[in-house]
Design the sequence.
């Protein structure tokens, strides 16, 4: 992100975002990559949209026996507050964070206009 200070643009780190590493189904990740390309966004912005929807419902129906077997390590950044809420939500429902992330994919809404675009990270504040 860029900040305008004294008429000059200064590149700064977005402190509202944190790095997070988890394991996600490779097939889901491939599906998200194509969806992100189609909508000019990043996978983590899509995931944030789905996670927000799941948290707003407050309920999750997840069958632990149907966990995917093709999980791969996935590292990205998330909104700090959202990630804390997801961690607490997973703990309250006796799930792993990656289970909640994978579950949230079905709730991604690309038509509501709330998904951040690729250029969001280069915004000027």
Sequence:
């Amino acid at each position: 992100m860029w900040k305008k200070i004294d008429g000059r643009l200064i590149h700064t780190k977005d402190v509202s975002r944190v790095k997070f590493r988890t394991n996600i189904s490779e097939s889901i990740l491939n599906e998200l990559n194509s969806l992100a390309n189609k909508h000019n966004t990043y996978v983590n912005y899509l995931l944030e949209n789905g996670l927000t929807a799941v948290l707003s419902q407050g309920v999750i129906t997840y069958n632990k026996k149907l966990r995917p077997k093709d999980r791969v390590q996935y590292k990205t950044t998330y909104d700090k507050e959202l990630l804390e809420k997801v961690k607490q939500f997973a703990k309250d429902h006796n799930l792993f964070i990656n289970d909640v992330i994978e579950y949230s994919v079905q709730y991604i809404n690309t038509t509501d206009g709330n998904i951040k675009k690729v250029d969001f990270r280069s915004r000027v504040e």
